[in-house]
Predict the 3D structure of the following.
Amino acid sequence: METLNLFHDRLSLTVVLFMFAVGLWGLIAFIRGESLGGSLSGAMIIGQVLIVIQVVLGVALLIGDRRPVDSMHYLYGTTVLIAMPFAYSYLQKRDPRQALLFFSLAALFLGGLAIRAITTGG
């Protein structure tokens, strides 16, 4: 269980850094006049996969009777999990340039939420 807890802890830092990197990458691309492309979309999918793995590890820890310090941790984890699919469904028929800005801001938001989840996890 300690190994699982360590992996959950380290992956949370990976999610924060990855989402901030993707968000900044997208904002720079937006400032340069670009629109949403395959590379950035792929990076966002990788970020979502990391988040799903993080949640699965968290559920495994919960099943193993390892609970977070603050129950708000569940809210942050759930929000991080559903935010990117929600953004995708909202932006499916939008202008690719508008989608780039929204996805970039969503990635930065998710990085911030992941930080908050870390602080409530214990």
Notes: The chain has four helices and no strands. The chain has one domain: 2-121. The CA atoms of residues 49 and 63 lie 21 Å apart.
